[in-house]
Sequence to fold (864 residues):
Amino acid sequence: MANPCAIIGIGQTKHDTKREDCSQIDLVREAAKRALEDAGLTWRDIDAVVIGKAPDTFEGVMMPELFLADALGAVGKPMLRVHTAGSVGGSTALVAASLIQAGVHDRVLTVAYEKQSESDAMWALAMKIPFSPPLVAGAGGYFAPHIRKYIAQSKAPDDIGIKVAVKDRLNGVKNPYAHLHLPNITYEEVRDSLMLWDPIRYLETCPSSDGACAMVLASESASNAPTRPAWVHGGAMRSEPTMFAGRDEVNPIAGQECARDVYKQAGISDPRKEFDAAEIYVPFSWFEAMWMENLHFAPIGDGWKMTDTGATAIDGDMPINPSGGVMCSNPIGASGMLRFAEAAMQVRGQAGEHQIDGARLALGHAYGGGSQYYAMWVVGSEKP
Amino acid sequence: MRDVAVVAYSAWNGVEHERNEVEILMPVVRDVFDKVGLTKNDIGFTCSGTSDYLAGQPFSFVSALDAVGAWPPIVESHVEMDGAWALYEAWVRLQHGDLDTALVYAVGKSTMGDLLDVLALQLDPYVLTPLWPDPVSLAALQARAYLEKTGKTEDDLAAVAESRGRRVDRASGYIASPLRRHDCPPITDGAAAVVLAVGDRARELCERPAWICGIDHRIEQHQLGARDLTRSESAKVAADKAGASGVDVAELHAPFTHQELILRDAIGLNGATINPSGGALKANPLMVAGLERIGEAASRVLDGSAAKVLGHATSGPCLQQNLVCVMESR
Amino acid sequence: MSEDVTGIVVPIHLDYTYTPGVAASRFLRHIAEGNYVGQRCPKCKKVYVPPRGSCPTCGVPTDEEVELKQTGTITAFCIVNIPFAGQAVECPYVSATIQLDGADIGFYHLIQEIPYDQIHIGMRVEAVWKPREEWGTTTESIAHFKPTDA
Fold:
């Protein structure tokens, strides 16, 4: 059986549109140093470094882990670089955890980042490939048809996306690291914002952020830390092809299976009842409703009702993204790790103003590509 | 640790102007499965290594998945590194105890872009890339430092080239002094795939599994001025940790002739046959060549011609990062 | 001379020789002749268009060619209002996935010749080709799709 894995240190940067005050080097160190401080460790204590980020074209550096090795204290140590599209922050944490669970290392530093302002993300996502017309305008253009399909299938009222957008932005106000702080946001303001990729409005879209997240993961024998650790109760990844005949893009099987796997590992049979909080990857607000079904929190067609009735609010019965989530900060490569880290912060009682009282079990979720790459972990306050 | 072995290996390399990455990879994956009578549905974990900048588009690894047929959904991960590191991740994952087989693959077409410019983007973006140093020039800096320090000569480099099957022409001009054409790798496209299996499953699948008895990798400083380019400390540490002594055959991922000499010094390969495949001087498909070294070395155990072998992979400018995988028959 | 430098611009220009692949090349040559030709998977029998050389679920080559009708059904769509670099058409425009009759998968193309608020999932559409002399090895040889009853 795999060895227990503890999360003993967590750090993140202040996320912002352009972190012009720092280089990529400073950015990853800002998060990593906070994680080390939280763990009460120094660079010297770390056995290996696992770094993740989304496409290299986002910063214009090929395999940037090579030039970041010095800054992350990796010299003389093993260093791995993970890339699984938007789910990469989650996958990176899982690869780092895997090193602990396999018994290879005792203390692993894992870091994920994106500094989108150093290149042009829209260009990087909608690159002109010969022989094919560039009709898909970035990620929004790709996902908007899926959302339209979900609305048609579930017969959801057309303002669910607006409600999620307002809820997540108000949660984000409680998170000092969040990129967007919009304390005065209103339903009307979101409703009246520009329709970018109909049915997705501007304020129903995540921002483009610079930011990083880091965690120190440890074996049982190395799990002593100033703050009590969170424990990994389950971790899973799943992938399916981008396009194939009969594919359900709204409720992809890979996501359903990944969730079942991770729940089984953690002994969870009723996620909505058993989780105290969940941090899930919602880059366009409608995805909260879609993922509630994909993650088995709600029956098919009913995901939107959880938003509509306030169940997913910070004071609801199933708080989703109390940190404000991707809708408030989206340093793409780091976004998945932020979900994983925020879930761990909840069960460690570290989440400050957005803490869910007494949270003991939480889900971290990330997805990427054309809704085809999934990474999830379940973390708890007790050792499994 | 659970016993994990390479049970099958397949690869293709060359220059390809017709097929895309998926079409190069598909027959390689099919061949590696055929060798052990498996299908995609028998695989527990899949891990790959590719590069978006090599392909010239983001998320290039996503379509590579089409070559595998990832349905029903698979347990899968990807490193933006040479496939050798994907093999390392798979080896780690198999230690958990719940999965018994893994497919590792790598694919890359180095001929698509201007490789010298593409690889300049591998450098520190603030102080090095703006100068656009090409990888051959950087290797030449390393070669010059190595020759000055050791007293070796260009003839010693040519001897390496000759023994890897390269036609040596001492009268040819320098590409970047002291490196001539025969000291430099060709630009190659390719794909490679390996199947890993655990314990009894490995013994079921093939007669002579290449058991991984040690695997380790290390990275060094990126700034070339911050390290001693004439030696490879990271290869030395990785080889020590992996238990590299007493191997019969070593496949070293040395794209340049002087790098083979540096690696031989670092790893300490007394009497071993080195690079019977010709190594990266014969074919150097980026992202693939390191996994090929492990696969080629493993093949010597699989075919019964060697008892203990070593596969090595490198990444980054001037051997910045190195991985050593030692395998044996049992 | 004491102004702090906080950033530099490094222009990057890379040239790639792109290969669509054997299967896609065959498809594109058919397009240049005014034909839409998909490929059938020998295992699951699904017809893919544009073909990508392999069946994504079976992982095997799709060699058999299947000529498709130029009518199909909208399976999903969105209205794009955001300009971006390299954009082919002026905003707003409708990008839709269209499943051609005889194919088992949709592909992206434009919907025109209808007010956007009348477009719906399930709508029947047909290909509108550019003038013959503008055909080439690109799906842009088809100008757009329009409703079959329009």
User: Anything to note?
Assistant: The beta strands of chain C are 37-40, 47-48, 64-67, 71-80, 93-100, 107-111, 124-129, 142-147. Residues 22-147 of chain C form one domain. The mean pLDDT of chain C is 90.
